[in-house]
Write a structure and sequence with these properties.
The chain has 19 helices and 9 strands.
């Protein structure tokens, strides 16, 4: 029986050797024909005569393409396809389910469980699934089957991190999955033989954020320590030439010089610098200089920089000194209906008709953390979806800790609370102070619809309209008594 055209089997994936050969050829052509600028996916697709969807499959290293496509990709860059450039992937003829990690990751070394398809979750016994359930607080672990890919994001960052001197900018509000994505990016990088440094800027002492020299020494010490290199800061730091020059000398001539392989440096929660404009200006211009110098400095090309933040930058910066208009921009979207259905099936729920997913999303949108909390309670606590939706905005509902955390932050900042009162009560477009808008977006409490600023989801609108209404009444009463 012939295989139907709609289910044409694609069975080849790039090996690491093939990926490196192809990317080296692309890089050479970018230098020769594109003024050293990266080709976009669309430009690559036009050159190769394939779709961007096919290219995304190719870069993922875990989804097969046919041999003709591989030959087209290689011949477009004057390469001949060799047997060591590809491996055979036996794909089933049903709809593909993205695995937890790309096949190029060494799951044995990382101690990961095998990838599980949606069908396998639906057919597992209830007590087997119970072993996978834990309250979804924090990033999704590497070995969890509950990580949902958002194509083509994972494929793009895996490809980009292999590029010399690259910068990847990952932006999303809190609890949207930034850290979960970074964990997988770092795992992928380690399988390529790269060294990794993962710095969380929220761990930096406040006194370092008012002194650039202290800040840079702190970051360099942490990077050296994570790389297993003796910091020796005093020996390699000359304050007479300035902290920024000392920092780049330390990074280039001391840290990177001791590493034969690329180093992936992740800077998490760099939003913290936004509240210190003078430090932010100097620090961000330094990041920009690393990227620009890497174009001709082979040692700095070992550095692969990943910056992770929650909102648009509201610090006023010279466009030519900002790191927020360079490199690969990644913005994490909310889950789609299909992705919510997929996640529900991985929890053992049959939501294939879409009705249940739509009902839940009418309350919380595609917010990943809120979706996972709902699925946890539906599976482990015996609550029905109708009960969950009905009780959600109550102080005793399943989202109480999530909502209380946001409410406590608003209570501590009167200006922010008053701004959010305007948002939840507004019937039309309103203007907010840019700093208040930045903080509300960073918390994930608002979204933009064209020029309009809206509550992130119906849950937030209903809950905070009630809570903030009481707060507004108390504030106005206090003003009258004053």
């Amino acid at each position: 029986m012939k295989e139907s055209k709609g289910k044409r089997k694609r069975g080849l994936v790039l090996t690491y050797a093939g990926l490196k050969r192809l990317q080296a050829a692309i890089l050479a052509m970018e230098k020769a024909q594109n003024n050293n600028n990266r080709f976009t996916l669309e430009e690559l697709g036009d050159r190769i005569n394939v779709s961007t969807k096919t290219l995304n499959r190719l870069w993922s290293l875990n989804t097969g393409v046919d041999q003709k496509t591989l030959k087209l990709c290689f011949s477009a860059f004057s390469l001949e396809l060799h047997t060591e450039d590809y491996a055979i992937l036996n794909e089933p003829n049903h709809a593909e389910i993205s695995p937890i990690l790309p096949l190029s990751l060494n799951t044995h070394e990382l101690n990961l469980s095998p990838s599980l398809s949606v069908g396998s979750f639906v057919t597992q016994e209830h007590n087997q699934l119970e072993n996978l359930w834990s309250y979804p607080d924090g990033p999704v672990p590497l070995d969890s089957p509950f990580y949902i890919e958002r194509p083509p994001i994972e494929e793009l960052v895996y490809r980009e991190v292999t590029q010399p001197g690259c910068v990847i900018r990952i932006r999303a509000a809190r609890e949207m999955g930034k850290t979960s994505l970074v964990l997988r990016l770092l795992a992928f990088a380690r399988t390529q033989g790269y060294r990794t440094v993962n710095l969380n800027c929220s761990q930096i002492d406040s006194n370092c954020l008012t002194d650039l020299n202290k800040l840079l020494r702190c970051l360099c010490w942490r990077a050296a320590t994570e790389l297993g290199i003796a910091p020796n800061l005093d020996r390699n730091w000359d304050e007479e030439i300035g902290s920024k020059l000392s920092c780049i000398f330390y990074l280039q001539s001391y840290l990177l010089n001791q590493s034969e392989s690329p180093v992936v440096l992740v800077l998490n929660e760099i939003d913290r610098f936004f509240e210190h404009p003078q430090i932010a200006q100097e620090f961000f211009s330094l990041l920009r200089s690393w990227y620009e110098e890497a174009r001709q400095n082979t040692n700095l090309q070992k550095l692969r920089l990943v910056v992770v933040y929650s909102t648009e930058v509201y610090v006023s910066m010279d466009i030519n000194r900002s790191p927020f208009n360079i490199g690969l921009p990644i913005r994490l979207p909310e889950f789609t209906v299909q992705q919510v259905e997929n996640l529900a099936q991985r929890h053992g729920l049959d939501w294939s008709c879409g009705k249940e997913a739509t009902q839940l999303m009418s309350l919380v949108g595609g917010h990943p953390a809120l979706i996972r909390i709902a699925l946890y309670y539906l599976c482990s606590q015996g609550i029905t979806l109708g009960e969950l939706v009905h009780e959600a905005i109550a102080n005793g509902g399943i989202y109480r800790y999530h909502l209380w955390r946001h409410w406590a932050i608003l209570q501590e900042n009167l200006s922010l609370a008053r701004a959010y009162i305007e948002v939840v009560a507004a019937k039309q477009s309103i203007y907010l102070n840019p700093i208040d808008a930045h903080k509300l977006e960073s918390l994930g409490l608002i979204r933009y619809e064209g020029d309009r600023i809206l509550p992130r989801c119906e849950l937030y609108r209903a809950y905070f309209q009630k809570q903030l209404g009481v707060a507004q009444f108390e504030y106005e009463s206090w003003q009258k008594r004053a």
